[in-house]
Structure formats: C-alpha cells, structure tokens
Amino acid sequence: MNVAQIIAQMRRKAKVNTTQYSDADALIDLNTGKDEFWSIINSTTDESFNWERWTSDTASGQGEYSIPHVAYNEAGAKVMSEVEVVYDSSTFDGTGSLQYVKAKRVSPSSLANSWEWYEENQPTSSPLFFVGDNSVFIAPIPQGDQAGTGRIRMTGVRKIADYTLSTSEADIKLPIDQQQALVYMLIVSALEHKGVDSNEINNAENRWLRKRREAIATLESRTS
Question: How far apart, in whole angstroms, are the C-alpha atoms of residue 59 and residue 151?
Fold first, then answer.
C-alpha cells in the first residue's frame, strides 16, 4: 500500500469522509503514529530494520563529527550502532574500498584517563567513539594526512521521513507486512475526529494494539 491507499482504506473502515477527517489531519496523525510504531519496532526486536551507512570526511585536529541530520522530510540517524574510522588511504585490493577499522563504543566517564588523553594517545589501530547530543566523538583525533574524504563511516537505524499523500509503498520504509497496522492505528484518530461514542473508540484502540502486537510478533519470528 502507498500512503493514499492507507488513508482511503482507513476511511472505508471507519466510515469517515474528508469533512470529518481531512487529508491534512490524517497525515499529521499518520506521521506521529508511524514514528511511535517505528520506535517500538526497534526497541522490541533484535534485528535492526531500515539500517543505513553514512560516510563523512575527517578533518585534521577534529574529533567531533555530526550525526546525519534528522529532519521531518529526510531520513537521518535514529539509532547510531557502529562507527568505523580509517586514518590512511589503505584500500582493499579487489574492491578498492577503504579499509575501515571498527571503533569501540565507550563511556568517557568509565575510562581510566580523561577523554583528551585518548584523543592524543589512542592507537589508530583501535579507535574509540562515544555519542553525545547530535555528534560522534572519536579518538584518536586525525592529524595531518590522517584526515581525508569519507574516512569516518557511521552505521545506524534511519528515522523515517514524514509521509505525504504521494509517498509510495517503498518509501513508507516499514516492512510491507506491517503497513496494514498503520490503517488500524489511523482508524482510532479518525473516530476521535468523527466524535463517536468512547466505547467505539476504545474498541478501535484495542484492535490497533492487537494489530501492533501481531506485527511485532511477525518481525520477531522472521528468519530471512
């Protein structure tokens, strides 16, 4: 389903029209709900869905790098899981790809020395990183020709960019089997806008929670 089909199916099931529940209101609620649903998927399943890799250039004397921007209309990092760094231009013979070294995630407060010590003394063969606010901090800090294009690579789970009426099925980004749950999520909001009896809203909410549990269970049991 694409977004337009999700909204159309919701209207048929909830028996609401565009006057009772406009496209604009439906999109606001759909985007709020899919962010909540996406967070639940990533916090309750072992597998990371919709992961992505981003590369950034390193600069001489710089140890702080921005995490890919998260905006309402673009995909950015939601969860940062891995950082890799390369301090020279070594590449693999077959592919020509840079030979990144996986950095170890640490908590600066648990280290024996101050973070500044590691920025200066940590071997380039075993880099460290931590995440703070919207930045990744790496040690050691690249110096001189150790810096270069694409020499830091970050792997994480993407935030899903906000939907519009023209969003395609592929750009919904949720696994296809789980997109049906969005219909039931939206029905709850539609009935609230329609002003129906609270019992009907409660029943719709219970259906949505059941569909959500079924969707999560399907993802947790996925084998391929």
Answer: 9
pLDDT at 40: 78
Say whether both 111 and 149 belong to one domain. Answer: yes
Indicate whether this model's pTM tops 0.70: no
Q: What is the CA radius of gyration of the chain?
A: 22
CA distance 78 to 57: 21
d(CA 188, CA 60): 53
Q: Which domain holds residue 10?
A: 3-47+162-220
Query: pLDDT-derived band of residue 51, with 50, 70 and 90 as boundaries?
Result: low
**Does the bond joining 142 to the residue before it have cis omega, within 30 degrees of 0?**
no
Average pLDDT over residues 132-147: 92
SS (H, E, C) 148-190: CCCCEEEEEEECCCCCCCCCCHHHHCCCHHHCHHHHHHHHHHH
Whether 152 and 56 share a structural domain: yes
Cα separations in angstroms, 184 against 11, 91, 197: 11, 50, 17
Q: Taking 70 as the threshold, does the pLDDT of residue 49 lie above it?
A: no
Q: CA geometry: angle at 166 spanning 163 and 172, to 5°?
A: 45
CA 37 distance to own-chain centroid: 12
